[in-house]
Specification:
- The protein is of the alpha+beta class.
- The chain has 2 domains: 10-111, 3-Layer(aba) Sandwich (GIY-YIG endonuclease); 114-176, no CATH class.
- Helix content is 40%, strand content 14%.
- It has 6 helices and 6 strands, in the order E-E-E-H-E-H-H-E-H-H-H-E.
- It has helices at 54-64, 82-96, 104-111, 122-129, 133-157, 168-171, and strands at residues 16-17, 34-39, 45-51, 71-76, 114-115, 175-176.
- A 4-stranded antiparallel β-sheet has the order 1-4-2-3, covered by helices on one side. Strands 5-6 form a two-stranded antiparallel sheet.
- Strand 2 (34-39) and strand 3 (45-51) form a beta hairpin.
- Helix 4 (122-129) packs antiparallel against helix 5 (133-157).
- The chain is elongated and about 60 Å long.
Length: 179
């Protein structure tokens, strides 16, 4: 764990599997404050974030970017301090030299609910544009359910055993996020 005066190098922290042998995130991370780095299958850095509940945040990232979440590096801190968390996060990104990780649009892919409207077929898009509000809501829910099923299938193939519950209210807006 980090104190307020030391900032560990990302390269000195050991990799952890995103999903453990039981197919879930490590429960040690529940309700823990800290900074985490997410890596793909090839251990290429894909995202650096921080949270007051690392476990909950990692679960959200897993559903938003299931193909990118294979390895982790985590640094927990003892006292909550946004300044310290930001400093560690920025140092880790700078250490890797990939400034695209700071791009707001890229960050949104990891931090914002999944907008399933972008996955609509041409037929669905046309139907949506030519429908009343109630029909649009029904179509958005249908598209959201389809994308949800795709995500659940990817996670099943990865061996996920965690309960994944999506927020049903957001589906009416064509959005997917955990409840």
């Amino acid at each position: 764990m980090t104190t307020q005066t030391t900032i560990p190098s990302l390269n000195t922290i050991d990799y952890l599997p995103y999903l453990n042998e039981e197919g879930s995130l490590s429960e040690i991370l529940q309700k823990k404050i800290g900074v985490y780095a997410i890596f793909d299958e090839n251990k290429t850095l894909k995202f650096v974030g921080y949270s007051r509940d690392i476990y909950a945040s990692l679960k959200q990232h897993l559903i938003r970017q299931p193909h990118q979440c294979h390895w982790l590096k985590v640094e927990m801190i003892t006292r909550p301090s946004r300044t310290v968390l930001e400093e560690i996060k920025d140092n880790w990104i700078d250490e890797q030299g990939d400034i695209s990780l700071k791009n707001q649009e890229y960050q949104a892919l990891w931090n914002q609910p999944i907008d399933t409207k972008s996955t609509m077929t041409e037929e669905e898009q046309e139907s949506y544009n030519n429908s009343d509000e109630l029909t649009q809501i029904k179509l958005l829910k249908k598209v959201a359910r389809r994308v949800q099923a795709e995500i659940e299938e990817i996670l099943k193939k990865r061996g996920n055993t965690m309960e994944i519950r999506f927020n049903p209210k957001l589906k009416e807006q064509g959005l997917l996020d955990l409840k």
